[in-house]
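debug: dumping io for the single-chain case to check the tokenizer round-trip. Nothing else runs in this session.
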Amino acid sequence: MILKYTFSIMSYETLYHKVLLDHYNHPKHRGALLNPDVSSGVFNPSCGDQVAIQALVNNEKITICKFEGKGCVISLAAASMLTEWATDKTLQEVQDFSSQDMLHMVKVQLGPNRVRCALLALEALHTGIKNYLKK
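debug: decoded output
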């Protein structure tokens, strides 16, 4: 008797599509803060996506980070992933987090138009921190 085995191998890309969909369908840190220390929003006119980031800062460290937005799976999932990552990080760590780091966090192949979607939240957070530090 010959046994047949069927293996379900999930590709790396498929796995991260599932991670993105989970962040989109069950966003982490979504909402608004009453008196944020850091606040900034970015609008992408080419697709209509918009993301706003807010954070509370204590001793140069982000203690709470939240986002709100409207847009595609990539922009909102990336915002969820970023706010989750940024919580409990120092302002310097967040400022040092680059566009390449953000794209690596998203971990899916993106065309040129979709890269901007993945970077909206990071742009908003970086701008908010710059404005906070100017005060």
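debug: round-trip ok. The chain has five helices and three strands.
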